[in-house]
Automatic annotation (TrEMBL):
It comes from Callithrix jacchus (White-tufted-ear marmoset). This is Cilia and flagella associated protein 298. It comes from the Eukaryota. InterPro entries: CFAP298. GO terms for biological process: regulation of cilium movement. The gene is CFAP298. Belongs to the CFAP298 family.
Length: 244
């Protein structure tokens, strides 16, 4: 098995093993899925830390408003009445105004915190130092653990607009966010090694040889589409002629 040390830029991400005979089309998709899956776990952990501290997401039309504004506009958090944490809630105001302040009690908070730490450890970059490969099965295991913890603390579920629920249902909207810029579309992923693109039409062994004990540092990136200026000038000239 060839050992791939996957990086994004100069930053280590994870280790992954693959036979030299693997088609690079398959391998590129596999690397992209693990890469994006780790990002998903990280986003969930971040939001679940806020869930543990400040409760569920407020309806979009109530976020960022003061109590007086909410009262004046006669807005109501109907999901907040349904989605109560197990054992009751403890009020802890969210100064940012994203969450409703009805936080889980200390026991339920620790259920979330403990699971978050365990999930982070599964996909941690420290796995590289430990020589442990990260697989899609491990990513799915981390997601399942996080989902299970949320179900324990919120047996009635979360509002449909809560980013945690949206992540679990694969309905997250990352457009216009920094997190969205980190995601690499599987169809646009590229792998590079030794300053060469590992073309999807070939096999891994076409680049690294037949030695199954090879270790390589490969970088993942998104295809960059370069604007062809010559085409632009041709189109411009044709347009000018048509106008004349």
């Amino acid at each position: 098995m060839v050992l791939l040390h996957v990086k994004r830029g100069d930053e280590s991400q994870f280790l992954l093993q693959a036979p030299g005979s693997t088609e690079l089309e398959e391998l590129t998709v596999q690397v992209a899925r693990v890469y994006n899956g780790r990002l998903k776990v990280q986003r969930l952990c971040s939001e679940m830390e806020e869930l543990a501290e400040h409760g569920i997401f407020l309806p979009p039309n109530m976020q960022g408003l003061t109590d007086d504004q909410i009262e004046e506009l006669k807005l109501k958090d109907e999901w907040g009445e349904k989605c109560v944490p197990s054992g009751g809630a403890i009020f802890k105001k969210d100064d940012i105004g994203r969450r409703n302040g009805q936080a889980p009690n200390e026991k339920m908070k620790q259920v979330l915190k403990k699971t978050i730490e365990e999930a982070k450890a599964i996909i941690s970059k420290k796995q590289v130092e430990a020589g442990i490969c990260v697989t899609m099965e491990m990513v799915k295991d981390a997601l399942d653990q996080l989902r299970g913890a949320v179900m324990i603390v919120y047996p009635m579920g979360l509002p449909p607009y809560d980013p945690i629920r949206m992540e679990f249902e694969n309905k997250e909207d990352l457009s216009g966010t920094q997190a969205g810029l980190s995601v690499i579309k599987e169809s646009e992923a590229q792998l590079w090694w030794a300053a060469k693109e590992l073309r999807r039409t070939k096999k891994l062994s076409d680049y690294v040889g037949k030695n199954e004990k090879t270790k390589i540092i490969t970088k993942i990136q998104q295809v960059s589409f370069r604007f062809n200026m010559s085409v632009f000038f041709v189109i411009s000239l044709q347009t000018d002629k048509n106008v004349q």
